[in-house]
Structures are given as C-alpha cells and as structure tokens.
Amino acid sequence: MITSIVLMKVEPKKINEVAQQLAGLERISEVYSVSGRYDIVAMIRTAENEELSQVVTEQFLQIDGIVSSETLIAFRVFSRYDLERMFDIS
Question: What is the pTM of this model?
Fold first, then answer.
C-alpha cells in the first residue's frame, strides 16, 4: 500500500467546495482543512504508483480552485493508530 500526503493551496472562497470534491474521490481516505502555508491536506492510499499518478495528475486537474499542490510519499508508518487499524479483524 502506497500512502501519499498531498499539501494543497486553494482559492480561499473554494476551500470547502474543493475539500468536499476531494473527499468524494475513491482513493482519498481523508481530507483536512488546515492552517498555515497550505489550505488542504489529503491522504491518498493506492496499491500502485500508477493509481497515485492518475489521482494527482488527472483527477485533481478536474477540480476547480486548486492553485498548487505538493505530493509527499510515505516510506514507513510509525503511528500506533495506523498499525492497530491494519491488524484489526473486528
């Protein structure tokens, strides 16, 4: 599983609209409205790099209001929360 964190700058009046559209995309697991240099953070989880590329280079381009983005690919998970969810069989 490839986990990516996408940091986005969004037109101020479109932050909520863009966040809702992102949350509706299949490979996006979470969307956060944040303060600081970026406006939105999206978590993408895919099986292959090709899927990640398709989300970032095709689906994001169809969402009006995204000014710029920076995609980070996670190498390893250190969060106890994520590790517990991976092995939860309930």
Answer: 0.83
